[in-house]
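Obj.: predict assembly geometry.
Materials: sequence records (below).
Method: joint structure prediction, all chains together.
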Amino acid sequence: MRQYLSKRIFSSILAITGLFVMVFFLARLTGDPGHLYLPIDAPLEVRKEFSEKHGFNDPIYIQFGKFLGDLTDGNLGYSLRKERPAIDIVLEAIPVTLSLAAVAMSIALAGAIIIGSLAAYRPNGIFDRISRVVSLTAASAPDFWVAITAILIFSVSLGWLPTSGIGGVPYWIMPIGILVIRPLGLLVQVVRGSMITALSSDFVKTARAKGVKEKVVIFKHALRNGLLPVITVAGDQAAAIANGAVIVETIFGWPGIGKLMIDSIMQRDFAVVQASILITAIVILSINIIIDIAYAVLDPRIRHK
Amino acid sequence: MVTKVRNKNKSLLKVNNLSVSFDTTEGSFDAVKKVNFDLKKGETLAIIGESGSGKSVTASVIMGILTCPPGRIKSGEVLLDDIDILKLSDSDRRKLMGSKVAIIFQDTLSHLNPVFSVGYQIAECFKVHKNLSKKDSWKKAVQLLERVRIPNPSRRAKDFPHQFSGGQRQRVMIAMALALEPDIIIADEPTTALDVTIQAKILELLGELRDERNMGLILITHDLAVAAEISDKVIVLNEGKIVEKGITKDVFINPDHDYTKQLMDSIPGKITKHKKKKSKKFSDPILEIKNISKFYENIACDNVSFNLFPNEVLGIVGESGSGKTTISNLILRLASPSNGEIFYHGKNILNFNKKDLFNFRRKVQVVFQDPYASLNPTMNIFDIISEPWVIHSDFLHKKLYQSKVSDLLISVGLQPEDAIKFPHQFSGGQRQRIAIARALALNPEIIICDEAVSALDVSIQAQIIKLLLNLKNKFSLSYIFIAHDLPVVKDLADRIIVMKSGKIIEQGLVDDVFNFPKEKYTKDLLKASLSIENLIS
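Observations (raw structure tokens):
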């Protein structure tokens, strides 16, 4: 297992390196930042000076060499816009997104485990039928539309919740609510499927024959076995949110990584694009490694391989 | 026989008039029909029957683990200490399960929870019923493991089911059943799928524990020899009905009902052979295995040599891990030997090029153990049997497929109309016939049967063995018959090879090996392999 993990970490580092090189070149294909930074009527000299100052005139391989040189010093470059180190800007944005993702995924996972397990306990029972319709609807809800409708109802008409911004609990309710809907719908279906299999396993019979209470049969004996496929899907969903809950962050004005990335791409703020992609990639690969570890924790058969 | 004696001979368990049916989309069918029996302290009752006879359903009802629906208890009562457990509430019934009556299942790998340590699973009994602390339950679990003779119990308790061997897992299961010192233990096929020597040890342990704690033991089995070995009385179930009941010895010596007689006749090892001992020395061998070895992480097969002659049945016996299947894989060239040579009609198959190998494979076919897994469920029987001809396209013209499939189905005892059906529409025995028909499709010289009858009920086993013998003469085949069950091999084989840890330790004509075994291991195997004759004589 330890050997497997170190292999996994090594290959993750390789992937990040590859990604980094690609992002450097692709970002520069979007065009000359000067066009966006300087006033439209800026004279040619000013433009030249701007490019010269930031090194955009150098051949791309020299720019890349410089970039690598800076990188070895731990320097990810300066934001053109904000004139601050890019990494600082990114490190301010990432906790916002991560806390959104963590809260949303915890709620989705907990809800899905309870609803999915109960649905699986009596397949085709009344609870199962209702949860199937609801979860399918939730899994296919367009979050953009749901978000706007929610603002219209809860903020504009009822005036219960703030329309946007960051702050206390009321500010969290709508963004989290929107982020939970899709993963919850999807996870309920996954939990239901894997719990039906787990509950019909022979070891469940053994547990019942021991006189174990049904609650313990479901949420201990069956669930521990039913969780493996759920974790895979949940990890995938968590990565998707961490990758930028772009829509939610934009609509609710949350200064997270998704919004930062979109903004910096639009502004050709290369250093920030690079830094935010690097950090996001590290987050996503970490999530994958955590999933691997969770697998091993949950299933001794994997641990002993 | 209603006596009002209130003594030790009182029944622990009484099942009266129990009927269970299953509601399916095709209507309901009765799985258990008006079954009556009782069990006293220190007594062992064997419930004998083939698959589908309702024996496991009866056990599920007693344990309160019958899945309803589709199951439905139509009538009857199950009296445990004069309390009808069918009338109890779920929570009251749960209190009895595990503490008054406990069950030991067969397939221990799937019946133990893979993600909890065995110590935890045993300790759970104390947590559920006795409310003991974690530490005390664990201590008791370790003691139980020691009682069922798991070596190094305090360390092993932390291990998970997959880290134990089949026999050890069965011991863990027994420890779990024993935990709360129940009055009754139900053992549902406790030794099926275990090697003979281990089988004997598990039965010995069960008997010992029964006597030590004066428990009632219900042994559910399809293996008559197992029933003969350990039980005091026996009931024979057929299609949900008790067709015969009585003292084990009486029933086995003087079976009354036709079905019981038929069962007794199907017991392997009884076929009286009127084989003329042909002198096979004069014909050249089809297959010569010379000093082959195969090393994986450990030695799977070590310096093995033998020959196979035309129209001969060669039995290979040994316990799991003895290298039987490795040899089959090497002959089929599904794996390459680390050392040694295999000659087919004098040519070394290891030097075969692609074309030679293709032709060789036509001549050597295989029938696997599990007919449920070895037939593709999405193909109909026609496609399954004709597939070899699609691969070996020069063998048969497409126009002739239909008539040849019909011929093959008839020769294995099925109907030509069966060709359009799918595997799930057949029983285990019928599926094995289909697998044999497929093996015959290319007119092979050799068929390797890898535990080909191990998964079948005794009466079906007898039919398949008969079929294999008929086909052998009809198509002049040679078989390599791999099995762990000695009586079966005795019925079928001309010569026999006994393997242990990858080595051949004894070989010879079947009668010689069975009657005058030379090696200690062979003697042990024969002794462990239960036979009814021991009981009867």
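Conclusions so far: Chain A has two domains: 2-72, 86-303.
To do: check interface contacts against the pulldown list.
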